Amino acid sequence: MKKFTKGLLLGATAIVSGAYTSIACTGISLTAADGSYVQARTIEWAKGALASEYVIIPRGEKLQSYTPTGLNGISFEARYGVVGLAVVQKEFIAEGINEMGLSAGLFFFPDYGSYGAYSATDNATTLADMQVVQWMLSQCATIDDVKSAINKVDIVGLDKGAVVHWRIGEASGRQVVMEIVGGNIRFYDNTVGVITNAPGFKWHLANLSNYVNLRPGSASSYMLGSQNVQPIGSSSAMLGLPGDFTPPSRFIRAAFFRNTAPQRATGFDTALECFHLLNNFDVPIAMENPDEKSLPSATQWTSAIDLKNRCVYYKTAYNNNIRCIDLKDINFASVKYQSQPLDTTQQQPIEKIQIK
Predict the structure, then answer these.
(1) What angle do CA 110, 170, 37 make, to 5 degrees?
(2) pLDDT digits over 190-226, tens only?
(3) If we measure between CA atoms, which residue out of 185, 188, 182, 192 comes closest to residue 26?
(4) pTM of the predicted model as reported, rounded to 2 decimal places
């Protein structure tokens, strides 16, 4: 039990908090001209390298949830094949997609979210918050499936500080945010295509009104008394856009970057656009943990998932080359349940240019 408890505590703190407020995950989504739909996000942790791996779950795989007292929670069998990006251990999928095109991810939601009380007598229906994505993607084909099934499980935290909320999307472009407050599950249509962390999603939507003056492009000059006031440089109409890394500020920046981005032709082009936009949300390591000397960035990895074409793209702090897992290349009836590190070596490949 000692080994189990230590592992769960590491898993929870690696996702949520610790001595430093080191979670600054930012999610965006974009739709391509050909109808492809991409959900992308960053994941942050500033206290060393976060163990991260990609996970393949075949159809028919028997799975079980942890509870605060052990590996004794709800048992379930995968109805759909899943590809996920997990943290700490393979069960803790932070972002993923199934073969039906349903995608889901978890985001830190401290202080504002709260689950129902854990009771060991309910272990047969108990689902760990860190395994909700694994459960959703292996059991559900649509958002409506999730809404129907979620009330049949009891979601609990593995650590008191490990409170998260979820983004769930379909290939059609429909997206919702799921939050649990006071043990009550709430769904919100995500009309802006952005998610960060606390406070709650409705608060973030209301906060957009504080930035009603922001526009892309340049502001018009005007006369202030007898003084002509004119823009200095480009993008002056977005003066006042917050630049810090708090969740409210990142939500505002992401909403304006996402909703002013040009529409790309294909899902692949749109995934690349998402990576470009999310580069603006890379958190320098010194911003989070000045004592950390080896980690190149607090943003440990960035992913973009094309829900229509069933492709998972990712890059890491150690290797900015974009890699792809194409679900169409996987036979989920025969593939083995497996996980592999996102980086086989933590080193950035460099292409040397040969001059002749």
Answers:
(1) 100
(2) 999 999 999 999 999 999 999 999 988 888 888 899 9
(3) 192
(4) 0.92
For residue 147, give Cα distances in angstroms to 12, 44, 139, 144, 154: 25, 28, 12, 5, 14
User: Domains plus CATH for the chain?
Assistant: 2-341 (3.60.60.10)
Give 3-state DSSP helix, strand, coil % of the chain, rounded to 5. 25, 30, 45
Q: Provide the CA 258 distance to its chain's centre, in angstroms.
A: 15
CA terminus-to-terminus distance, the chain: 63
Spell out the residues 6+ positions from residue 35 whose beta carbon is closer than 8 angstroms to its own.
308
Which of these, 52, 46, 1, lies nearest to 24 by C-alpha position?
A: 46
96: exposed, middle or buried (Cβ count in 10 Å: 0-12, 13-18, 19+): buried
In which order are the strands placed within the sheet that holds 338-341? Answer: 184-189, 175-181, 164-169, 103-108, 93-98, 82-87, 52-57, 338-341
Tokens of 349: 């490949």
Which one, of 85, 88, 128, lies nearest residue 6 by Cα?
88
Q: Which of 108-112, 206-210, 277-281 has the lowest mean pLDDT?
A: 108-112
Q: Which residue has the higher pLDDT, 216 or 83?
A: 83
Residue at 264: amino acid letter: R
